[in-house]
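lol so apparently i was supposed to do this last week
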Amino acid sequence: MKLGIFSDIHANLEALQRALDFFQEQRIDKYLCLGDIVGYGADPEECVALVRALPIVAVAGNHDRAVVARTELARFNTPARLALQWTREQLTPSSRAFLAKLKLVQIDRQFRLVHASPSSPAEWRYVLSEVDIAEELDAFKEQVCLIGHSHRPFAVAEGKGGIEYVSEPEFTVSGTLRYLINVGSVGQPRDGDPRLCVVIYDSEIKRLSFHRLEYDLVTAQNKMRAVGLPEVLARRLSSGR
Ligand code: ZN
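anyway here it is w/ zinc ion bound
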């Protein structure tokens, strides 16, 4: 079985379409989504509709919770808050209900899915440093924990010898190791590479691979400007920061 794994779409329809086309070419059987389907971008309703239509296991992100008023808007910076307020008005009741029903944690086979951190899923903590990573590896019992939230992809493996970053974009998941994997962001990468990021896992050969793809970000930016979303949010798509 081939899993298509993705996160942090942020209402970027151009990026999501490109990611889904790629997944289709790769003959994906099932999807895992780490949250933040909406927030920042110009097409929240379309993105929720596309994600909902997939055979998918998904968890809630902080932006998903915020649009259905389960997270306080005060916790967001000004451009994010403005985008969330705008997003609330764009969603149909059925899309809002879909977002409202997303759980904070899901388990699928050997995978634990959580948007931000396995140690405190409701606190939207960023897992960035090696200290954070070591702590989070102790916070779940499954073999692999998949996260998003920081929009910075990485894979870390823990074995008898300690914790190590996996530098190859494609690797075999070893039965003797445990993993914490940030799958990056579809709709707003922040690692300096503006190309969208997705992950594929092939369970037959136990291969996990990261993929970076170009998409029509100029159209995504122009749509954001046309609906009056903050310019800073449009601009950051070109720099991937
Ligand atoms: Zn996000």
